[in-house]
# Entry
Amino acid sequence: MNTSAQLIGLIGLCGLSIWSLFIGVIDMAPMDILRDREAFSLLAISRFPRTAAVLISGASLAIVGAIMQMMVRNRFVEPMTSGTGSGAALGILWVSIVLPAAPLLVKMMLASLTALICTIGFLAIVRRLPPSQPLYVPLVGIIYGGVIGAGVTYFAYQADLLQYLDIWTNGEFSGVLKGRYEIIWIAALTALLAYFAADQFAIVGLGRDRSVNLGLNYEQVMLLGLIAISVVTALIVTTPGMIPFVGLVVPNIVSRLFGDNLRQTLPTVALFGATLVLLSDITGRLVRFPFEVPVGTIMGIVGAFVFLWLLYGRRA
Amino acid sequence: MIRVQNTSYAVSGTTILSDINLEITQGVVTALVGPNGAGKSTLLSLIARINKAQSGQITVDDLTIGDCDDRDLALRLSILTQDNTMGARLTVRDLVSFGRYPHHRGRATADDLATIETAIDRFDLTELADRYLDDLSGGQKQRAFIAMTFAQNTDYILLDEPLNNLDIAASRHLMPLLHDLCADQGKTIIVVLHDLNYAARYADQLVMMRDGQVVAQGTPKEVLTAQNVSDVFQTEADVRIIDGRPMVIV
# Structure
């Protein structure tokens, strides 16, 4: 994508973000911030954290989705529907039961670790599938994620934590407040670090043999990618909750338009991801104002249509 | 110098290569020939550390395969594998650019960019450079992969059936180019070829394999005899000498 188009996209996203700051039950106009101290604290406590969390979730989910598609060499996978998301939910549930008093950071690390183990399990299964059948991979992912998700529900029921489960599995940003969301900035940092390894992930997408030929430590890059995917997913599952399809839809659209040279395309992937989730969140807030439709629900609808387009809209 | 010593390789109990001993002549094109399943591709993959031999030792100059740093070897030796499936959507130029990765590891210099353009030009890909690989024909794709290997610019180049999908013009373009690379730049090239006549016509050295063993090594004239063709390939084909090189009448 050329830089002027990217700039226009960025300006558009800035405009949407500013708009997003002024949508909510309490009516607030831009000029109020300067005049009214309460309006300013509303912005600082609720509106800004929410918009930031939306942007970070969208951008980082799209980036790890693109990386995961390279690593699995399959267009139809993404972390939330391939076991990583359910794995993170399993982890955070398990920590909540076993170590309820642990600091948030420790809980996060353990949730990431569980997500990592579940993702490695997914890769181990997928590796045995016939390469001539690319659609087996997402199907197995959905079943695999479903099995883990069923386990999560069972344990949550046993521990009487079902009400929390809904927070993790259904992404929505209304609960994002200052002091309760800052950990998600780690997802932004992780996605940024992953960007520095963009070339390595693109080479991994060429397959193991070609990676080895180019002197890449294939196993090491795969592990780094898995860690990035797991950390970002775990942070998002525990903060807004699962947001499906972003990691699937956005990399596919960008790949179709601009290819897979990740060094060049990942900024666009991040931009599209942030824009898509922000648009979904704004839609969710406006569609039956003053009530909210969770962003995960909106994304589920959008994602289903784009997924069908991907399946049937592409040339053979 | 590529030296293979007492090397064996088996996959789940089935022997693919047994006790290979081989020295590849420096600075020439060596063609590996033999029937399907002889172990030619496997031998290349062992030399290029894509698969690990269970026993024996393979050295490339002072580097021992398996012990040396992968990056050091990537600057010394490159391989074109037979697989030309692509998961990623890349343009020809993107793909060829990745051939320079071992040299710059992320930050391409002006030299790298020049080498990339040379490779694109050398394989007639200039007009296709900004097209996506999945929109190209099999032969065009194959040329892009060869150009990527060429851009890696290593002393040792291993090519596994590079003529796959190539038409006669592209094949007759590639083979003399390999010869020139050896003659002008002192490169050492090992190429797996199915067509014995391409091997006889363009290779300086032939290595003939069967059932995971080397059965003959030498110049095309020494190796490609009617006797060897009938023993190794189990088919009676007439071999004639044309312009000093053997030719198998098919």
